[in-house]
Design goal:
Length: about 80
């Protein structure tokens, strides 16, 4: 499951997206209530943000593959 951490200036629904999986945060759980799920998602977001600040992950931030699209005008507009 992918969670988008970046805030985009406009809707990108239907746009193609490149992604790079850098790690694993936690297994999938069956939640007894929505609030527990929301709490874990918030924790996942914080873990991901802290992980992405590490030098070993930060090198991927400028990876051209993540922002270069062939023939996808909408995707290129969203990526910039």
């Amino acid at each position: 499951e992918v969670h988008i951490l970046h805030s985009f200036p406009r809707d990108f629904y239907g746009a193609r997206m490149n992604l790079l999986i850098l790690g694993f945060i936690r297994p999938e759980y069956d939640y007894v209530d929505k609030e527990s799920l929301i709490e874990d998602i918030r924790t996942d977001i914080e873990v991901a943000r802290r992980s992405l600040e590490r030098e070993s992950y930060a090198v991927f931030k400028g990876e051209g593959y993540l922002v270069q699209f062939e023939g996808g005008e909408h995707e290129q507009e969203v990526a910039t």
